[in-house]
UniProtKB/TrEMBL annotation:
Metabolic or biological pathway, per its Swiss-Prot or TrEMBL entry: One-carbon metabolism; tetrahydrofolate interconversion
Keyword Cell division in record: no
Quaternary data: Homodimer.
Organism: Blastochloris viridis (Rhodopseudomonas viridis)
Binding site for NADP(+): 166-168, 232
One Gene Ontology term from the biological process aspect of the record: L-histidine biosynthetic process
GO cellular component terms, A-Z: cytosol
The name this protein goes by in its record: Bifunctional protein FolD
NCBIfam families: PRK10792.1, PRK14186.1, PRK14188.1
Tetrahydrofolate dehydrogenase/cyclohydrolase catalytic domain boundaries: 6-121
PANTHER family named in the record: C-1-TETRAHYDROFOLATE SYNTHASE, CYTOPLASMIC, C-1-TETRAHYDROFOLATE SYNTHASE, CYTOPLASMIC-RELATED
EC number of the protein: 1.5.1.5, 3.5.4.9
Length: 293
């Protein structure tokens, strides 16, 4: 492999350490302990693990963690009532409802019920609109993590061609907005894009957020490009076991790119770190204090 590995471990550890230091300063100087409420409806195994990890990381950073585990049959009205209580609770500065919610609950209604000031997932239309308008916003955590990783290898992104494959509200669109704000020339590709390999080959920065194992091949990568692989795909690994792989054929792409994120151990580690940073930012803003940089 000739590319530099953009290793999520030290980068996410540094973000968490910075949050912990800033949280200690807030507690000391302002008596403020940022609080994050995470709501889980049902018992989806992957979601349960994510929620547990978020709670653990929150406490380790010196923030307050509130976990609300609701049964699968919880009604939309009951969930919205809990969100209303959390919106009004001054000890809660960030609210995250673990998605997906069960099918009988309208996820848009849930997203829009969260106060935009406490929307640490950055999914409320107020926050996506503010991001698109170039205003201060709470930005989704995974895209923030992508940008942070990119900047460890290339601090100045202005003028670069960026191709983002995927256009979800959670990843693709906000990644594209962040890159646009960094003055990249941004293309958003998706399932209807014609000749996707050729589009990808234009990219100085290639972000894959598709959810298809190793779909992006080595010969889709422009020599010297920086590749950020957001995909997390669980695939069979023989003997009844499974393993995680990304949306990029890592071994092939690592021969062509100048830098690349691994899966696992890449973007996935940044998401929780950026969630803590968003909670700190939300708490600071709600207290009328400047948002930490
Ligand atoms: P979505 O399923 O919401 O979006 C996938 C996007 O990929 C869509 O825009 C879709 O296009 C596009 N797409 C699908 N197939 C193709 C194709 N053949 N060619 C081109 N584009 C295609 O997924 P998410 O954005 O939520 O997640 C993407 C990946 O990132 C997943 O693997 C997910 O697990 C992972 N993820 C990782 C996180 C982390 O912490 N690292 C956090 C969140 C997600 P269209 O819109 O046209 O259908």
């Amino acid at each position: 492999m000739s590319a530099t590995l953009i290793d999520g471990k030290p980068i996410s550890a540094a973000v968490k350490a910075k949050v912990a230091a800033e949280a200690a300063r807030l507690a000391r100087d302002h008596g403020l302990v940022p609080g994050l409420a995470v709501v889980l409806v049902g018992e989806d195994p992957a979601s349960t693990v994510y929620v547990r990890n978020k709670g653990k990381a929150t406490i380790e950073a010196g923030l307050r963690s509130f976990e609300h585990k609701l049964p699968e049959h919880t009604s939309e009205a009951e969930l919205l009532a809990l969100i209303a209580r959390l919106n009004a609770d001054p000890t809660v500065h960030g609210i995250l409802v673990q998605l997906p919610v069960p099918a009988h609950i309208d996820s848009q209604a849930v997203i829009q019920a969260i106060s935009p000031d406490k929307d640490v997932d950055g999914l409320h239309p107020m926050n996506s609109g503010r991001l698109a308008s170039g205003l201060a916003a709470l930005v989704p955590c995974t895209p923030l993590g992508c940008l942070h990783m990119l900047k460890t290898v290339r601090p100045q992104l202005a003028g670069l061609e960026a191709v983002v494959v995927g256009r979800s509200n959670l990843v693709g669109k906000p990644v594209a907005q962040l890159l646009l704000a960094e003055n990249c020339t941004v293309t958003i590709a998706h399932s209807r894009t014609r000749d996707l390999p050729a589009v990808c080959r234009r990219a100085d920065i290639l972000v894959a957020a598709v959810g298809r194992p190793e779909m992006l091949r080595g010969d889709w990568v422009k020599p010297g490009a920086i590749v950020i692989d957001v995909g997390i795909n669980r695939v069979p690994a023989g003997e009844g076991k499974t393993r995680l792989i990304g949306d990029v054929a890592f071994a092939e792409a690592a021969e062509i790119a100048s830098a690349i994120t691994p899966v696992p151990g890449g973007v996935g580690l940044m998401t929780v770190a950026c969630l803590l940073a968003n909670t700190l930012k939300a708490a600071s803003m709600q207290a009328g204090l400047p948002a930490p940089q």
